[in-house]
């Protein structure tokens, strides 16, 4: 163990300063002078600790001397110290690092060459034995002005709203209602002269890939206040022309929730308690910190609830939507092989594995699943076949397809239907379904939105008001008090200039997650709230959310699931303090627990790694026989190179970000291996898939939908 006796003039100092002292090892004592390049007072949760993280750049006459058993000293190191009130520190523990060499020459680090100098933090979201996740200020003004100042485009305020809406009958019927006030205000016409019809929108099994198609039924006369036993209606009205003009046309979608039968009766429990609704509602591509930027109204409402819990260490496990959401639904890995993805080529998802909705259905629940941007859906993109049979009780995909292909979106701002984004109508559909089912017919719902935020880092702001209204209506009607809510995302924003920064990389891997369970449940099980709050400061994945949702399926049963092969239920367990990304089944590429040490991005280590990455990308193109379609990649610049540490333990894992010709940006983690049989004594092994962090769809059209789309820059 190595120790440095030293004196810091002010124990609360947070600015770089000079420190002098002695470095002692088993074999010798070396006098040195250091420059403190950074000092951070650590926080665990919201409490300031007595720990100060200090990074030193050593300057010593014996700088090349053998120290701590290594064959060369690295020119800077990092460690933590505990200070007392006098400011005199008698011992500092140093964590030794393995020296990195190329051709037996030491590879220097350079703490000043990071590509992002704006990333500043002075506390941690997670600070455990093996996981330290920095907690940045989401509202830091430099970051806000540079990346979050653009106001997202909203739907036109002067667009005419729809005049038909669903009315829930006391007997459990859903009826077509007419809003006379809206009609009078915006249309200023005689409704009796409108000729209105509707046609059903439905899923047609005649197609080979059923989930990529929809059909319309026959047109039927629309009667206001009628209650057709059809769920998805497309309404069309012919309006009389004025001043010699041809007839105008009015159209709108209408989603009428129905009380559908269940396949299994409700399971009795040992306590005579009623089951609760279980609601997963998500917005794609929003980090935890960005949720605070984008959803001020929604979070103000939710955080006023005393039982709301925010997950500070909720870490993604895969690159994009499918490898994060499908494990949430199944509890098993999607990528790489032998994950679920390798089992579904040229087949439907039916009976391939169990989904959460199967578990809830067998317990007497009705189930719901929908996702915006259906063409990029979990079960069809890029070339999958989806489901042959509808897998859930409520499946609104045909209506969402009709909306996206309608003239409502083709005219004006293509994301809107009338004055609203479609997300408003989909959330209304979820709310109305829970309302019509009442207290005795529980619903498991997976309601996933994406269109407003997937391609715009500020896009979540567009539906903040929708989310607030959705939860407020549930609260007003007493639904929230009998609903377990998981308000989540799958990952952060994955592209663009902010993603290339240090903070942007963290935000990509840390989506938002909030859990709100009914107060009545906590009253019966107070330990559950304590456990969930403890887990809010632990490393959490979708595997843990899956296990939690399995436990809720049998929430009043003594035989309920509390652990799975890959996850802990957050209700009945406190995740171990020493959990690592490896334990949590998080790949190196996506692990937020690693702290990083910048390395010289102009040195031989960096160029060696960069060339290996480029060779790997070009090999992917080559093995897919696409070299005639796609350009060969060459290096433009190395943007960043960092070495990763896990708590106090330094690894041989490096992460590199590089720019290429043609213009693209890639990022990947790889393991450094000393190998005398290789050129320069260096060998690399990728520990994750290579990620593309710039927009690529416009110049990869020649291989659109392929597994290697992100690695292609089309020649034409």
UniProtKB/TrEMBL annotation:
One GO cellular component, as annotated: extracellular space
Pfam family for this entry, one: DUF229
PANTHER family named in the record: FI08016P-RELATED (PTHR10974)
Protein name: Uncharacterized protein
Organism of this sequence: Varroa destructor (Honeybee mite)
């Amino acid at each position: 163990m190595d120790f440095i006796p030293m004196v810091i003039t002010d124990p609360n100092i947070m600015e770089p300063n000079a420190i002098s002292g002695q470095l002692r090892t088993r074999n010798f004592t070396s006098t040195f002078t250091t420059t403190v390049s950074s000092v951070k007072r650590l926080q665990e949760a919201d409490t300031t600790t007595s720990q100060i993280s200090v990074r030193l750049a050593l300057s010593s006459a014996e700088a090349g001397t053998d120290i701590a058993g290594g064959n060369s000293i690295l020119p800077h190191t990092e460690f933590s110290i505990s200070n007392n009130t006098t400011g005199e520190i008698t011992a500092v523990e140093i964590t030794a690092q393995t020296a990195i060499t190329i051709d037996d020459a030491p590879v220097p680090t350079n703490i000043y060459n990071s590509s992002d100098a704006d990333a500043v933090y002075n506390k941690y979201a997670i600070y455990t034995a093996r996981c330290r996740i920095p907690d940045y200020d989401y509202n830091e003004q430099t970051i806000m002005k540079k990346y979050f100042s653009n106001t997202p485009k909203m739907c036109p305020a002067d667009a005419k709203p729809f005049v038909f809406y669903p009315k829930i009958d006391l007997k459990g019927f859903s009826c077509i209602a007419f809003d006379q006030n809206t009609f009078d205000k915006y249309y200023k016409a005689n409704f009796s002269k409108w000729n209105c019809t509707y046609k059903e929108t439905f899923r047609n099994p005649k197609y080979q890939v059923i989930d990529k198609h929809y059909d319309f039924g026959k047109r039927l006369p629309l009667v206001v206040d009628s209650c057709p036993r059809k769920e998805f209606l497309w309404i069309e009205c012919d309006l009389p022309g004025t001043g010699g003009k041809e007839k105008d046309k009015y159209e709108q979608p209408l989603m009428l929730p129905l009380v559908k039968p269940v396949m299994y009766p409700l399971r009795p429990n040992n306590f005579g308690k009623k089951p609760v609704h279980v609601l997963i509602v998500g917005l794609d591509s929003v980090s935890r910190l960005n949720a605070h930027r984008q959803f001020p109204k929604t979070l103000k409402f939710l955080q006023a609830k005393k039982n709301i819990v925010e997950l500070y260490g909720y870490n993604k496990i895969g690159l994009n939507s499918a490898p994060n959401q499908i494990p949430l639904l199944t509890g098993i890995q999607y990528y790489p092989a032998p994950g679920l993805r390798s089992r579904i080529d040229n087949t439907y998802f039916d009976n391939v594995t169990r989904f959460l909705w199967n578990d809830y259905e067998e317990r007497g629940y009705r189930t719901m699943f929908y996702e915006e941007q259906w063409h990029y859906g979990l079960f069809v993109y890029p070339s999958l076949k989806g489901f042959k049979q509808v897998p859930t009780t409520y499946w609104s995909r045909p209506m969402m397809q009709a909306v996206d292909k309608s003239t409502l979106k083709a005219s004006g701002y293509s994301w809107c239907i009338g004055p609203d984004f479609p997300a408003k109508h989909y959330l209304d559909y979820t709310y109305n379904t829970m309302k019509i089912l009442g207290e005795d017919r529980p619903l498991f719902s997976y309601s996933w939105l994406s269109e407003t935020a997937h391609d715009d880092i500020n896009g979540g702001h567009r539906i903040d008001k929708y989310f607030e209204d959705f939860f407020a209506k549930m609260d007003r009607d007493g639904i929230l008090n009998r609903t377990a809510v998981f308000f989540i995302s799958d990952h952060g924003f994955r592209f663009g200039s902010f993603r290339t920064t240090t903070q942007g990389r963290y935000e990509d891997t840390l989506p938002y997650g909030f859990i709100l369970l009914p107060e009545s449940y906590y009253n019966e099980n107070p330990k559950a709230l304590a456990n969930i709050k403890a887990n809010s400061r632990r490393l959490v994945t979708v595997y843990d959310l899956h296990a939690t949702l399995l436990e809720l399926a049998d929430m009043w049963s003594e035989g309920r699931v509390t652990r799975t092969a890959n996850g802990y239920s957050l209700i009945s367990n406190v995740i171990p303090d020493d959990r690592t990304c490896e334990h949590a089944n998080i790949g190196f590429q996506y692990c937020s627990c690693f702290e990083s040490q910048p390395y010289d991005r102009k040195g031989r280590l960096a160029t060696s790694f960069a060339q290996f990455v480029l060779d790997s990308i070009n090999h992917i193109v080559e093995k897919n026989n696409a070299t005639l379609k796609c350009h060969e990649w060459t290096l433009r610049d190395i943007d960043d190179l960092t070495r990763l540490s896990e708590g106090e333990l330094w690894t041989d894992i490096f992460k590199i970000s590089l720019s290429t010709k043609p213009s693209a940006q890639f990022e990947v983690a790889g393991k450094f291996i000393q190998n005398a049989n290789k050129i320069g004594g260096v060998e690399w092994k990728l520990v994750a898939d290579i990620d593309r962090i710039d927009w690529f769809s416009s110049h990869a059209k020649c291989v659109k939908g392929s597994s290697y789309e992100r690695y292609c820059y089309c020649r034409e």
